[in-house]
Amino acid sequence: MILYKYVSFEAALTILKTKSLGFSHLEDFNDPFEGTALGVIQSDIEGISSDRFIQQCKDKFSRRFGVLSLTRAPLNPLMWSHYADSYKGVVIGIDTQKAGLEDIEKFMIPAQRGEIIYLATAPKNPIELTQYEIQQIAEAIDIDKQKYEDLCKRAFLYKSLYWAYEEEVRVVKNIYPAKFSYHSPYSREKIVDGQIWKRISLGTRPIYTIEVPQDAFVELYIGKNVYVDQRRKYQMSGEKVEDHIIPKFEELRKICSDNNINFYRVDVDIEQWKLKSSLINKVT
Q1: Which of 38, 55, 89, 157 has the fewest CB atoms in 10 Å of its CB?
Q2: Banded pLDDT at 74 (limits 50, 70, 90)
Q3: Of 100, 154, 104, 103, residue with least CA distance to 125
Q4: What is the pLDDT, as a whole number, of residue 111?
């Protein structure tokens, strides 16, 4: 299965050079309703409002799991505006099987089960939780298996219909065994389920990265504004452009050429109000 990641130009270079993918916390996503489709009810907790109880559950899910957001749509105009730096960024095509993201033993929600379910309203059929079960969410210890699966599905895969344009697919990892600290300013490295996970601080939030095989990266789409933006930045640094060569742009192109990654340019089709792609470097 080929899924896509929208990123900035600089992030694309980092991903391809380090062969790594980053997972984030629910609370750091741009949807304020992330993790609130739980529909849970209190069973043994007095004096806690439903809103506070749902937030308490969301906090547990957010801090103990990492989420990788991908999409099925590499040519979505809104996605390019919102997540690829207004067409100055890049979309990377990832073979999820080669990347190991379909491993049901290593991921709580693997790629083939991570299709987002878009709903017009929040689910109302309740799941009853005890305080003890909330504490055990990360390990799924002493929680009914079906109840736990339902909770995870609601926490990570239910979103408002407003977001349906994203065609999102998620991969979810339980990173709780690594005992990473959300607020630490330092990078750390831990082994979880036989995988090396690196905690990287981005200043205001952490991400958790794993290395994937180089051949998991199979396509790359550059936005229509990439070359002009990179040229402007290069000139602003005091460098002179010769023969239309911009070093970072050429670096990205070379990475694709050296690693058999199909390299596309994205432009607009004004007549159809659609995006179109043209192949620049083809894998032989």
Answers
A1: 55
A2: very high
A3: 154
A4: 97
Kindly state the tokens that stand for 2: 């080929």
Closest CA to 157 of 103, 112, 220: 112
Residues 6+ apart with CB under 8 A from 139: 174, 176
Mean pLDDT value of segment 113-141: 81
> DSSP string of the chain?
-EEEEEE-HHHHHHHHHHTEEEEB-GGGSS-TTTT----EEESS--S--HHHHHHHHHHHHHHHEEEEEEES-TT-HHHHHHHTTTTTSEEEEEETTTTTTT-TTT-SB-GGG-B-EEESS---S-EEE-HHHHHTTTTTTTS-HHHHHHHHHHHHHEEEGGGGGG-EEEEEEE-GGGT--TT-SS-EEEEETTEEEEEEE-SSSEEEEEE--GGGEEEEEE-TTHHHHHHHHHHHTTPPPBTTB-HHHHHHHHHHHHTT-EEEEEEEETTTTEEEEEEEE---
Distance CA 1, CA 4 (A): 10
In the block, residue with structure tokens 């190991």: 100
Half-sphere exposure of 218 (CA within 13 A, CB side): 13
CB 139 within 8 A of CB 176: yes
User: pTM (2 decimals)?
Assistant: 0.91
Cα–Cα–Cα angle for 162, 168, 173, rounded to 5 degrees: 125
Question: 33 — phi, psi (to 5°)?
Answer: -100, 10
* Residue 13 identity (one-letter amino acid): L
pLDDT of 102 reads 97
